[in-house]
C-alpha cells in the first residue's frame, strides 16, 4: 500500500517498485510505455504525446464514464534516471483547445534500492480538496497499472 498524505494542498506519495531505477524512468519517458499505465483503470487514452526534455511538452486526451478530458504540461527538469519535474493542467470542456485550468507541478524522484526503486511523487498545490482527492485516486490507480507493466517484459 503506498504512503500518501496531503501537506499544504500538495499530495505526497511514496511507492516501491520491483524494478530498476532505469526501468521505472523508462516507463515515464518512453511514450509506448507511458500510454500503457498513465491514468487509472477505466480510463482510455485516445492521444498521447510526450517530449521528455527540459522545455518539452506532454499531452494526453482520453475518455472515461464521465466523458472526455485533455491534460497537458511542460517538463521543467529532466535528470535521467533520477528525476522528472513537469506542470499539469486539465483543459476546459474536455478538449485540448479549451482553456487550461488550475496548473500544478509534479515532481518525481527515483531512488535505487538494490534491484528495486523507491518512487516519490510530490504533486500540487491543488485548488481544492476535491481536486486533491481526484488526483490521489488517479495516481493510486495509475501506479497499480505501472506495477503491472514493470512486472512484464520491457
Question: What can you see in these coordinates?
Answer:
This protein is about 25% helix and about 45% strand. The chain is an alpha+beta fold. A hairpin with a 6-residue loop joins strand 3 (about 45-50) and strand 4. The radius of gyration is 15 Å and the shape is globular. An eight-stranded antiparallel beta sheet has the order 1-2-8-7-6-5-4-3, with helices on one face. It has helices at about 20-30, 30-35, 130-150, and strands spanning about 5, 10-15, 45-50, 55-65, 65-80, 85-90, 105-115, 115-125. The protein has a single domain (about 5-150), classed as Alpha-D-Glucose-1,6-Bisphosphate, Chain A, domain 4 (2-Layer Sandwich). It has three helices and eight strands; from the N terminus they run E-E-H-H-E-E-E-E-E-E-H.
SSE layout:
Layout: E1 3-7, E2 10-17, H1 21-29, H2 31-37, E3 44-50, E4 57-64, E5 67-79, E6 83-90, E7 104-113, E8 116-124, H3 129-151
Antiparallel strand pairs: 1-2, 2-8, 3-4, 4-5, 5-6, 6-7, 7-8
Amino acid at each position: 500500500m503506498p504512503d500518501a498524505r496531503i501537506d499544504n494542498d500538495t499530495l505526497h506519495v511514496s511507492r516501491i517498485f520491483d524494478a530498476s531505477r532505469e526501468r521505472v524512468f523508462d516507463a515515464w519517458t518512453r511514450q509506448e510505455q507511458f500510454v500503457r499505465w498513465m491514468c487509472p483503470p477505466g480510463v482510455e487514452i485516445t492521444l498521447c504525446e510526450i517530449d521528455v526534455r527540459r522545455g518539452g511538452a506532454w499531452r494526453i486526451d482520453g475518455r472515461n464514464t464521465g466523458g472526455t478530458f485533455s491534460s497537458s504540461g511542460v517538463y521543467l527538469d529532466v535528470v535521467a534516471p533520477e528525476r522528472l519535474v513537469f506542470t499539469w493542467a486539465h483543459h476546459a470542456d474536455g478538449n485540448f483547445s479549451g482553456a487550461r485550468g488550475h496548473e500544478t507541478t509534479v515532481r518525481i524522484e527515483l531512488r535505487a534500492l538494490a534491484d528495486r526503486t523507491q518512487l516519490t511523487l510530490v504533486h500540487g498545490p491543488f485548488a481544492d480538496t476535491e481536486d486533491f482527492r481526484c488526483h490521489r485516486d488517479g495516481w493510486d490507480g495509475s501506479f497499480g497499472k505501472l506495477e503491472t507493466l514493470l512486472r512484464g517484459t520491457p
